[in-house]
Design brief:
With about 450 residues, the protein is of the alpha/beta class. It contains 16 helices and 16 strands.
Length: about 450
């Protein structure tokens, strides 16, 4: 924590930056004042709000955004990470235009759903059968229900800081304070069956299974902790999870909504060479359109089969009006085909490593407690007393919350945008160039240099 004098210096620095932001975003401010008349908080998703008002995007192309005031930004948010090919990708637009002429929504089976399913399964050998949903939240809801039905157990184990969407049983201990519910409206009767462990903590894994092992239906984990700080798992942590799930006949679920087709064509499971029983996908597999999916071992997934399990008390329901929507599948299939053709993952890893290594080096040179984490196109930035290995360290070892808001605004006036002001996540697309990376590092160094001068005064 900073002393009162340094906090005052930071506040003055923040106000200086904030004034520049307000001066350059007058039309966004006007739109926001209209927005608060129709939306709670003035926005359609709370994560999109930042103090004192968000920018309003007018158009996007490649890795660039233009706001209502015609400010141009390099975008490191990319539609919540869904747009790995960047905005308005011409091959995606052309493919979708063709599909629009054939139909936007059938409500019946179609050949494309089989073709896309086989394409995903080709790259994810742990997925023997699959079903589509409309979002990652839906997919996580169904996959945990499936795990409980298969194991006939109640308890779910998740990671502190892990975000799996807004399904009640998983919306637990996502953000601090971790001893309070994350949202009003949750029932203790539901959340009492959700257990939590610390990310990358093998001792926590051992303890939770020693106490509850015979009652655990599944463990669900992001191989790279997303909202909790863009922190990669240690392979040993995932390996131990696999071993304990096998030992106690629990299911291991990888939530690869972020990492699926972002860190490799085979997701994080191929990168780590640790394979789950069930996998959750979303974002990238929709090519910029709404989607989710879950899949895994045949004997587990077949519990959805209403022909095989005619007794509804034995089967798991899954459905949805827009499930396997042909527009989303068209965009998603074309996206994966392009990733197969271009194989951008080596370039992603080189760019990510450069930002992490040079960012950490800059922070060390200027004696700033600032740490960069991430892996292959996913970058997290932390103003903490040590490099975080989990969400508790990412949140509780912060030396000032104001510094996060300050850095966020500083990047925006430097024409770089990411989410969120509470926890920086930067995501890459195939449209980002080495010039973009160099510019990003220049803005970061400029910020660190000015911050260092402020803290020395």
């Amino acid at each position: 924590m900073l002393n009162t004098m340094l906090e005052k210096e930071l506040e003055d620095f923040y106000q200086e930056v904030l004034n520049k932001y307000v001066e350059s975003t007058k039309k966004s401010r006007k739109l926001y004042h209209t927005g608060i008349e129709v939306f709670p908080q003035g926005v359609s998703y709370s994560i999109r709000y930042f103090d004192p008002y968000p920018i309003y995007v007018r158009k996007a192309h490649g890795c660039k955004l233009w706001d209502a005031d015609d400010n141009e930004y390099t975008d490191y948010w990319l539609g919540h990470g869904a747009l790995i090919l960047g905005h308005t990708s011409r091959p995606i637009i052309d493919a979708v235009k063709e599909q629009l002429e054939r139909g936007t929504h059938f409500g019946f089976c179609h050949e494309l759903e089989i073709k896309f399913a086989k394409t995903i399964m080709k790259h994810l050998p742990s997925v023997e059968m699959i079903r589509f949903t409309n979002s990652g939240t839906e997919a996580n809801m169904y996959v945990t229900r499936l795990a409980r039905a298969y194991t006939k157990r109640k308890f779910i184990v998740k990671v502190l800081g892990g975000w799996h969407g807004s399904y009640d049983a998983l919306h637990v201990k996502v953000t601090p304070p971790f001893d309070k519910l994350d949202t009003a409206g949750l029932l203790e009767e539901i959340t009492k069956y959700t257990l939590t462990i610390n990310f990358n903590s093998i001792s926590d894994v051992e303890k939770v299974f020693q106490i509850h092992g015979d009652n655990i239906a599944c463990v669900i984990v992001e191989p790279v902790l997303g909202a909790g700080g863009a922190i990669p798992a240690r392979r040993e942590f995932l390996k131990v999870l696999r071993e304990y799930c096998d030992k106690y006949n629990a299911l291991l679920i990888f939530d690869e909504v972020i990492t699926g087709f972002r860190v490799s064509l085979g997701g994080a499971q191929r990168l780590y060479n640790v394979y789950p029983d069930l996998t959750v996908l979303g974002k990238i597999i929709g090519g910029g359109f709404p989607i989710g999916a879950f899949g895994g071992k045949r004997e587990i997934m077949e519990l959805i089969d209403e022909c095989k399990y005619q007794d509804k008390s034995l089967r798991v329901f899954h459905g949805g009006t827009f499930t396997a929507n042909p527009i989303s599948l068209t965009a998603g299939l074309r996206t994966i085909n392009i990733l197969e053709e271009e194989n951008p993952y080596i370039k992603f890893e080189e760019m990510t490593s450069k930002v992490i290594e040079e960012g950490n080096s800059l922070a060390s040179r200027y004696n700033i407690n600032m740490f960069f984490t991430g892996i292959c196109s996913i970058i997290g930035i932390h103003f903490t007393n040590k490099r975080p290995e989990n969400a508790i360290e990412a949140y509780e070892s912060r030396w000032s919350f104001l510094i996060y808001k300050l850095f966020h605004k500083y990047c925006i006036i430097g024409k770089i945008i990411y989410m969120t002001e509470k926890m920086p996540h930067l995501l890459l697309s195939t449209q980002h160039t080495w010039s973009d990376i160099e510019y990003l590092l220049n803005v970061i160094e400029d910020f660190i240099r000015k911050l260092s001068n402020v803290l020395r005064t």
